[in-house]
Design goal:
135 residues; 1 helix; 12 strands; mainly beta; Jelly Rolls; four-stranded antiparallel beta sheet
Length: 135
């Protein structure tokens, strides 16, 4: 069973849970570290990248990493925006697609590895704005 721990609290004891919502309650904006049950960290969002509505191609990370989550910051009615496992282009394996019409405050807990990098494709007119959490 996955465990999580918030190292910034007075009680850093891991809590066992399979409930992703527990992990996505933002812990007051602090990073969440997910353990695999053996004490090994399997995911940790150490950085963020804001992606504007109508963004151009955006390289979030040009090296191996992990796409931890996406949080929608502005509702968009435009087309979906794809996030690729690529160090520099909008091609290859799609890690996630932010759907058109995604509403402000929506959290997508992903925790997916990116073997090559993390690149966000150019958004269409009125595409949603969002923040990418990654390591």
């Amino acid at each position: 069973m996955p465990q999580w721990a918030n190292p910034f609290t007075q009680n850093p004891e891991p809590v066992q849970t399979t409930d992703k919502q527990v992990l996505e309650d933002h812990l007051n904006g602090l990073p969440v570290r997910i353990f695999d049950g053996t004490g090994t960290i399997s995911s940790s969002a150490t950085s963020t990248a804001p992606i504007a509505s109508n963004n151009s191609l955006t390289v979030v990370k040009a090296a191996k990493g992990r796409l931890a989550k996406v949080v929608v910051t502005t509702t968009g009615a435009g087309g979906p925006v794809a996030i690729y496992d690529n160090a520099s282009a909008a091609s290859g394996t799609v890690l996630f697609t932010v759907p058109s019409g995604a509403t402000t405050g929506t959290i997508y807990a992903l925790d997916v590895p990116a073997a090559n990098g993390i690149t966000v494709a150019a958004g269409g007119a009125s595409s949603p704005a969002f923040t990418v959490y990654y390591s």
